[in-house]
Fold:
Amino acid sequence: MGCGGRIIHHMKSHLTRRHFLTYVPLLIPSVTQIHALASPQLQIPASAPAQKGKWWEQEPLRILDLVTAFGQINGQPAAALAQQKAALGYNAEHLHVMQFTGAGIDDQGFFFQTKLAGKQNPDYLGEYLPEAHKHGLRVFIYFNVHSYAMPFGEAHPNWRQVREDGTPLTGVYETATSFCINSPYREWAFQIDRDLCAYPIDGILYDGPIFFPQTCYCHYCQEKFRRRYGAELPSKKERKGKRFEQLLEFQSASLADFLRDTQMVIKAINPNVALYMNGSVLGGNYATGRLPRVINPEEDLIINEGGFLYGDLTRMPLWRPGVMARLQESQSGGKPSVVACAAALKSWNVSLLPDPELRLLYADSIANGAGVYFGMFLSEWDQPEMQTLAAMNRFFAKHSNYYENTRSEARIAVVWSDTTANFYAGSAAQLIDVARVPARSNVGNLEQEFWGLTEALVRAHAPFDVIDDYTLEHAALDRYHAIFLPNVACMSDAIAARLRDYVQRGGNMFTTFETSRYDAAGELRTDFAMAELMGVSSTAKVAGPRRWDYMGKQSPSPLLDRIPRQWIPSPTYYLQVKAAGAQVALSFTKPLAGSYELPPQLSSDPALTVHKTGEGTVVYCAGDLGNMIHDWHTPEPLILVENAVRTLAPVGIELENVPSAVELIHRSQNNGGRHLFHFVNFNGEMTRPIRRITPIRDARVTLPKEITARKIHTLMHPQSLTPQRDSRGRARFVVPMIEEYEVVVVE
Structure:
């Protein structure tokens, strides 16, 4: 089969949702081809629901991951444990039947029957499964395929991942190693899968597989890469250009091969066994190889760690689980998705978050169209906080019909660019060990730029979707009135052309900093790919850091409404540009020698421009505005984004007596016959973890005129609400109480 034939075969297989694809060792498309071919959603809207078929598509999943692998696997009586899990309201679980030695597994701790066991242990899986199924629990087997005990690794040296310097990988979770999926290890893993599928299990969760920032340069990867590209494996240290693009393609396709071959193994035994893998968090995939658009088609459902909270929570977005759920929905190809949440504040694994934090993690996940998973250890199993999760499980189960087959009604999209995350200097690696995130350039910090703009939209009560590069290039964009691009620095010519067409036909854009200044492989362009569309031209100079400098008003603009001051604090960095048709609303001031060297003086460098072209408008902020919001929360940038929403994409839903820390999510069912307004209240005690939420009383809601309210009721505090009509004929009503979460149903 020639190259073109292979691509057609690959595309055809995915479009028919087949999982048993023929392994073709020479098929490695480019990153551009991967984005074009690796998802089955070419004709599916970003929020299209899965069609019910397999058991995992029947209802939203409420998954428990009770980590028993660090203790005695069969230390809990099977019947009592299954009954207790079901009593807490879970309908599925990740069951641990492989014991950890330190931070990894080996062949000594298998509590099921397998010919690969180095030691025979009691068959706890065989004992447990009938009890779980008796109580309605679907059982996924947790299979860690990325962390192995060091003695087991030393016993299989040709399986281990190898660093660029030729040494085998050590230090996984400090004390473990990892195996390479291109080595003979894969056959060992597949035999474990076969032995597991001999039992009536419901699914397998792979924790992994992944590569690491320094790996893999083993003999098998070297040979496989050489066969495919006719060259040696390039370094991971140079994150740009064709060679690095090939490395990323190779590692991601290797993960997809492993998943695809796993599907062939398990589906040949039982087609009703579901497979999925832990997809981790927002960040560059260059370290791990986990490109969502490549690996998602090989899974039955999608899961990512959107609710694992690490470090200083005052620096972490409260709405992180919901944002991850939105991105998963865009990238899932219509498959069900689950947001993985940890009950503990990491990295203290045997601890517990307070009740409000647990409720918020749960609520923000399900409000945005995802199922939910909670992971915890045995030491937390009997703690009072478990009743908080049980109450949320009961709520979710009771009202599951309001969460099935919903679609987003957002008319704003924010772009998370995996391409930029992988090729841009201002992005971090997506790692399993968060404490070891490598340093990145402070200039144009991608994650903070993204989280800053999404925070501004949440605080503006503007429902939004999160879309990616593939969506920009292939999906219909007309449903969005405005697209926000937070420093989407690396952009293909094809995406730039689609956005040009989108704006010419009436769409609007809000862009920041270096958006489109680099190509899809991270190579610097001479100017923005969208220079003509934005109405500005880059001078290729980045100014900063600006510690006490300002922006000043240059000309009137609706974007500056409710900002009365002449001088506005400046972002830390900005790209020097020249206006080429755009109106300059704000300009940067000349650098001040010190904070008291006043008054500021305007420079000739535009800070905020507005360019009307065709039927649409492009707003461009030359500075890292999202970083400014994330780091400082000064009011003017937040107001500026809110004004951009009012100008470019008016929400239509008006809220009164609702603080900015309440997130509004708008979804619908039955082709708009039922509207669902989710309110997630993050209004806490000005610190985190939050121990007490301040309830919202008498929130006033005005609906757009096109939504006719025949019947209105709430779910968390069940009651009927009586709509009134304002002078414009719009339905108005009052929500008496919003604690952490409320859902208003409008029929």
Notes: The first strand starts at residue 62 and ends at 67. DSSP finds 19 helices and 33 strands in the chain. The first helix runs from residue 3 to 15. The CA atoms of residues 300 and 344 lie 28 Å apart.
